[in-house]
Amino acid sequence: MENPGHDPIYRLLLDGPPRSAREIETHVGLSRVTAGQRIKALARAGLIAEGDSLASGGGRPARTWRINPHHRNLIGIDVGEQMARVTLFSLGLDVLDEALLEIDLRADPARTLEALAACAERLATGDRASAPVAGLGIALPAPIDYRQGRVAKPSVMYGWEELDLRALLRSRLKMPVALDNDVNLMCLAEQRLHWPETRHFVFIKAGTGIGCGMITDGQLLRGAFGTSGDIGHIQHSPEPHRLCRCGKQGCIEAHAAGWALARDLQAQGNDCRDAREVMQLYVRGAPECRALVNASSRIIGTVAADLVAMLNPAALVIGGTLSGAGEAMLAGIRERVYQRCLPLATERLQIGSARGGERLGVQGAAILARAQMGAPS
Amino acid sequence: MENPGHDPIYRLLLDGPPRSAREIETHVGLSRVTAGQRIKALARAGLIAEGDSLASGGGRPARTWRINPHHRNLIGIDVGEQMARVTLFSLGLDVLDEALLEIDLRADPARTLEALAACAERLATGDRASAPVAGLGIALPAPIDYRQGRVAKPSVMYGWEELDLRALLRSRLKMPVALDNDVNLMCLAEQRLHWPETRHFVFIKAGTGIGCGMITDGQLLRGAFGTSGDIGHIQHSPEPHRLCRCGKQGCIEAHAAGWALARDLQAQGNDCRDAREVMQLYVRGAPECRALVNASSRIIGTVAADLVAMLNPAALVIGGTLSGAGEAMLAGIRERVYQRCLPLATERLQIGSARGGERLGVQGAAILARAQMGAPS
DNA sequence: ATACTTTTGTAAATAACTTATCATAAGTGG
DNA sequence: CCACTTATGATAAGTTATTTACAAAAGTAT
């Protein structure tokens, strides 16, 4: 059992729920005898362990198998605009250790990258490290060329496009590295951890900016050049249009994103610089802030309605800082979705707030790294 | 070689381009020796045949293998609002025989279904039938519950939801049957036949109604309940809103679809009842028609821009009757897409008209049936 | 408790696949 | 023509998986 990541049974259990031997057989396409033998081998090697038994259907109940969460660790990194979170996980995604780094995306990328790598190294070898690290995932606030493992250009991360991020980190840290866009990874974590049965899933992140992740048939949808889910600059905002930070007019971000709400609140004399402070004002009950959030939710709702019409997901989940407004944010979205979409698309659609919290990014990064354990790189 | 559909090599070649032995090995994960043996066995059985040789890269050129197009036939059915097309294909999708049926979707579904089945049976056993029929695919103008193999309710096909279409046809015709939405299947055919290298693909059908099909990573995106691609009732049309046939206001269909253009042209005194007649007027150069088509193309362009922003396809293709307007239809779409989407999403995006013609529906149906040959039903 | 169902374990014979090696075929570039 | 490269074919030995058959375990229904 040199590299368990190559074993199809182990891989199946890595990225999915616990399964019975019978399910494993059908999924990996092995006969009952062979599957049973290999399950036993994996169990003897300590890579997998017994899970709960399933309910009996008139016969002996099937027992399930799951990965041994303590066999390896994972590292997730979530790079934000001013801060990066670096988390050491067990394979079962328990948080073992964590560090927050202040970073500046406009500073020298190589230096920032080295700071992240050094931090990951500290966690990997620190007191809380219970096992070798099997892989590292990074969530970045930029479009990602997923196959190349680097930031797609042009992006907001000036200078980062030049770096072969995956290769650099892999040689620096001696472990497999996987990259993806932060919203994609938040979507992945929310779906895998909180909506495991939902195979058609849309996650809208409403924070400083607005973006979305989409899962169809259980697979993250990445698009041809890594820009899928870039819904912040869709142009359907109400008149009068306002200037967006992308230079165009009419983008929904310019009316509904955290930065735009902060801008408007500042113009009204509030001390409010970013999405987080918008939510603070909101919680304190500032009426002008509530009005803005309500308007924002309806604008986001128009795009949500488009997403539902196009993709026909089974669940639509709102995350990001602004989703802290809870039902208020959902109300506008529900209003627009139910108003604008056909009943067939909405009657079985679930709409809700993200159940995951501020760790969704690192969790998604770790899930990605876990899914790629042992994959050819 | 009882059922060749179970052979992974045969299946690979069924739904893909000709491949060299080397490519086949890697795709199906067999060693060179075994793959070679099985390729030879398939060739001896007449299921596959040699294709062209690839260009040499300094050594002996690799020869490719492709399916034997004459080993089996396929039937595709494209059900429209007033007409159904039933086509007998070879496995290589050459047209062997064809029939057009007048139908009425509002009539008794069982009777219509029987007419289709009888027609399929005639073609399957007729003079032009060169081989046994391996499967039948049907394109229907309704949302399809793909896993159940029936029309999802509620739909425009009143009464059809009650029928277990797949089971009925399978037992009636004694062959595997696959169903899908017509736009999905047009999308599939256009991509597989005319854009085989493009794995992220969006197809907009602008005819009597407006809908789209989406392919990501080479897979048709069907959504949770079969309504994906239902973009006709997205609400972004310009003021003043007009009443849509769905009962809402502001749907793009009510401004940009064939039925809406016909309605407007009629109101202006033209004799114009459907999308086809709109195109006839257009070709004759009627100025009021040209103006309407231009406006329509820009409205479709707004939705196209949303699709591009969300899905980041590598190609966006316009089909359906209205795409007969050619560059005029493309112009408005290009205008909106380039105006509204970020450069990263558009700089490598191809926008064009469908290369396939009026047989796209039946071709897609046949491709679907072919892909499912031997699959568990 | 008894009959029934479904899951799991084991062993032996058979079938399939892989690895390794050698030989041959059919191109390219000089 | 010759050296070099890549593709293909054939064979043997060794490994792994499948099939078949029997038995036991652990539940449910009556």
From TrEMBL, chains A, B:
GO biological process: regulation of DNA-templated transcription
GO MF annotations in UniProt: kinase activity
Highest taxon listed in the record's lineage: Bacteria
Keyword annotations: Kinase, Transferase
Keyword set includes Phosphoprotein: no
Protein name as catalogued: Sugar kinase of the NBD/HSP70 family, may contain an N-terminal HTH domain
Keyword Kinase appears in the UniProt entry: yes
SUPFAM superfamilies, alphabetized: Actin-like ATPase domain, Winged helix' DNA-binding domain
